[in-house]
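Ticket #4471: complex job returned nothing on first submit. Input attached below:
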Amino acid sequence: MSRLPADFVLKNLSRRGFLQGVGATGALVIAASWGLPEAFAADAVKKYGGDAMPHGLIDDPKVYVSIATDGTVTVICNRSEMGQGVRTSLSLVVADELDADWAHVRVQQAPGDEVRYGNQDTDGSRSMRHWFEPMRRCGASVRAMLEQAAAEQWKVPLGECRAQLHKVIHQPSGRALGYGELAVAAGALAVPARDTLRLKQPSEFRYIGKEGVKAIDGADIVNGRAVYGADVHFDGMLYATIARPQVYGGKVKSFDASAALKVPGVIKVLEIESRPLPSEFQPLGGVAVVASNTWAAIKGREALSIVWDDGVNASYNSIDYRKDLEAAAQQPGKVVRNTGTLDQAMSDADSTLEAAYYLPHLAQSPMEPMVAIARFDKGQCEAWAPSQAPQVTRERVAERLGLPFDNVTINVTLLGGGFGRKSKPDFVVEAAILAKEFPGKAVRVQWTREDDIHNAYFHTVSAEYLKAGLNKDGLPSAWLHRTVAPSITALFAPGMNHEAAFELGMGFTNMAYAIPNVRLENPEAAAHTRVGWYRSVSNIPHGFAIQSFVDELAHKAGQDPLQYQLKLLGPDRQIDPKTLSDEWNYGESPERYPIDTARLRGVLETAAKAAGWGRTLPKGRGLGLAVHYSFVTYVAAVIEVEVKDDGTLIVHKADIAVDCGPQINPERIRSQFEGACVMGLGNAVLGEISFKDGKVQQDNFHMYEVARMSLAPKVVAVHLVTPQGEVPLGGVGEPGVPPIAPALCNAIFAATGKRIRSLPVRYQLQGWQETKA
Amino acid sequence: MITLKLNGQDHQLDVTEDMPLLWAIRDVAGYNGTKFGCGMGLCGACTIHIDGAPARSCITPIGAVKGQAVSTIDNLHTDPIGQVVQQAWLDSAVAQCGYCQGGQIMSATALLKTNPNPSDEQIEEAMVGNICRCGTYNRIKTAIRQASTHLQGAKA
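Support reply: We reran it on our side without changes. The output follows.
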């Protein structure tokens, strides 16, 4: 068993200590961490959850927790903060098990170092569900060490000492020692073995599952002091913008920098090499303008004259591509799930219904455009960036600069939104490439909003085709669904024309309705741009198509959509996702995380009840319902919409019911679902990225519109459902998005009789009353 | 050299007159609370006050504000109404990522200064130019109503 060194104590730890790296805690590193031996031992067994992620889980308190003599508890946060509240939520778990006073807890952001900190990819709605238990153990370990230190100091039996709100109390005598007073002695003790730890009973929780925990970064945010990517500043820093190829795979043929160099403040113009396709996470290349301030870099770039070779994707055109996708959706494709005898059931059906849906590309467009600062000196590169994936970033920077991995440091700032875009390190690699040209100087690469919209890793574009064979009772005996969409995997290898298991597993293969004959197909689609992860990913098209189609089936059957949904779910049962041909299951164990139709029913009934489902509404108003399982969480939404005479929408209310298992920070859970609802409405009503001649046609927020206050529901109510029995944690950040668009469009149908099958809704409702008449 | 009256102090800045205030404030004067979001006055992340009125610093050249008092979120805690708005933001736990919230708070403060008791429609009208990609609009409305109630109470 390893021992903590005496300098367990940290003095004067700055909240912004990360700007100097985390040298302050470096002394705490001791050879072994609990995660590693297991990682090697368990090779033969399939791993799930956090254990299956690169570098797995680490629960060594020496890595994550320190206590200063003044009692300040510092928790290292290994995940990136992008608004989901992870710095607060992970820390409150440690603080709870440690029985610390929240007012004396600080958070320090970990740099990219997965060997030390375990997996740091902040994506997939995984941070709390993977790190809840390890962080509990960290807190409980330190609590035990403090109790032991007190017992030794008082020379009393350990069992008489109890940690309680930042003090250890000797229960018989009432004597107390503060955590700060015990820090040095506790730091000299051995870390207790994992199986000796006493974790709190839920009834003992002080912060976990409770309301009113103050957000770690709240005060800094409202005072403008919170440090995001572009807020890292060095004296003498250089500022760069980059003219990137507008067509995926394009490159610079030639350029003239003479006018750019005349712009006051412009220092240098240089080319960044484009890599061959597929581009993976590498920068797109282009021409960089380096200047003494951002404005000069922007003006300098405008003055560049560049001749581009647009390359193989110069004919990518969204209007034509849509036709290709829709044609492919009418033809048989690769079968990814086949239950029963679909063709027979379809021809035996009493009636059939078919429908086709289309959803365009989207850009994540977090409010903070991509930005990164890098400094290169003496064979070392240090960068500061709002990154969702600092380890991957470190690997790519090392690779691109030809440096040993250990010579690269990636510091993580707060993220001004991420939504999947900032998992890609391309913008940080750009800064590193430029920094290498100016040794000793910090270089900031600032993307403009136009850069962000033109060069996102776009949400896929898809055509969805569904056909149901119906019994006399209106319920389907046969279900055919084809999804056609370019795959994220096309980033990594040529010829990747099918959706991967992780994309199909997002609400397509794992469709859980009780239908005897099901065939799911995935025809080919080639990618002509960078397709990437966008909050909730392929759940967006799959959820929209399925939930819209179920509503269509209910209306065809003349049945209430809620009652129809409940019938379609069938009897309550737990489904092994493997039996639905989904081997992925969000990386989670199928035994621990079966699909539980009772929980789907639970959220449906909760949302419907809260919304007053079935009530009569004034003309032009409607209620719409949708339910979707994603990121091992169950969500239903009921939306009440009013369609004005001119086709504009007013969303009066959204009732969102969520069963994400145990709730660690309920307030932040509700905020995530409120936000996901607004983002989902923006996706549904406004969002569209389109291409012409290989180039994105939208430039800024006037053309790529996102939800503003006017589109937000007048009331949004999130109802957290407490599941029956013991279930593990579900995801929170993403699963709120998928049910929103179909719930809205189902509400529009209820209000107007007009079925929206193609997103965004935008102007489709203009003149809806005339069409109806 | 251009003299900028920023957050109650005169700053001598060596910049061209066409430089948007946003970049002068951030890159040159060194105040980081004002954020870059779009560069076209479309998102409101860069909202500041010029003589108390809200303005988009990304499209306001520094040469256009000579002699005018510019203030940013960094200094809002010195403003009594600003303080009330900031506290309301904390009480309603508005922020998610927080990047746009400085601009949101500046817009909200400017609204409440001219209209201490805005209707829901007036709130929406004043705030529709501020985008929050995290979707915190409902809590923004709640916070503005709370601040408004507080200000009404203080006046009574």
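Confidence is low (pLDDT under 50) at residues 1-42 of chain A. Closing as resolved unless it happens again.
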